[in-house]
Amino acid sequence: MTPTAAVTQAPLSPTQPVALEEGASVTEMGVYLAEVATGRLWRLERGGAWSPDGKVLASAGCCSGQGGLDVIEVPAGPVVRIFSGDVDTLAWSPDGAQIAFSPAQGGALARGAYVINRDGSGLKRLSERTGWISWSPRGDRIALQGPGLYLVEAATGDTSEIPDATQAPWYPGSVSWSPDGALLAFANDSGLYVYSPDTGDRRQVAVGPSAFPSWSPDGRRIAFYFGPRIPMAYGAYAGDPEVGQQIPHVVELEGSSEPKPLPVAATMSWSPDGSQIAYLEFGCITGAWDVYTAEPGGVAVRLTSTPAAAKEGPFWSPTGDIIAFSTFGELILAHAESGELRTLAASGGSESYRPEIHLHGPVWSPDGRYIQFGAGGAHGICD
Asked: pTM, whole model, 2 decimals?
């Protein structure tokens, strides 16, 4: 498909980040930015996707009547609206020069995949297809996920479908590019696949229900959730076979090895050098919530000793020396080797393990200087 011409947008004035007083607690729901070195906090109007250089957040809004695509210089602004209209999903180009996005249905633009320059110029429609966007690290292709799986040539807009790639359920996040951008992993109910856009070759590396593939930084292994769900032992859905957790596994891409299971984990992330995985024990099944690191197939090292405190994370820093997680009442940094803990931010709740406001979803900036996180209302942990 030939890209369409740029569309002029009316500028708006999005809300600038608000700096909190030094040492202040988080007492309002919203999205926040924390400076790792100092602990300084800013409240954002909404969260966003980090630019590759870690200096800008791209923030998309939808379905409020005041939606738009904003770029925010961190930490304190300015905020510049580069597109006015509801946006469903977005992704930065690897060089940080462009943002790909899908407008929400019923907006001013026809449905499809669009790109826009970082400064708001050059808006064009690449494809009539839409979905969750994942830009190849090489910058040459964009993957659009669901329904169906499509590849869009970033230079021309030519769009092709990967045949038989989708089998329900089709989770957002079930597509992942290899670090060098040469291969695309996708997961569905039938298994985990690795696809080469250059050659069209497709290889199945796991047979059975699979989800959320994550490449090791060296591109030799993939961590993913695999197999039948294990029912939860706690909460309103305890014992329900339809509501549970798949076991994380790691599969080697060289040779014909079977996927190797990890412990029952809620979330996991690779260390930047690919030698270890940090994971959070899933307390809704095991009854304990602690953070561990381990070499795949090796002995696990426990970083926390608070199994009764429910947590979210962990997320490895880009430098590999720090792991971030939350205890809902606190955002905590753990030194990956010594295990030393530091509280970066805390909510104003009466108890750190059962606060009125939960801190969750820490996301590192690519340069490791900041962490973006959310603050939301209290909720049932296993419900």
From this structure: 0.89
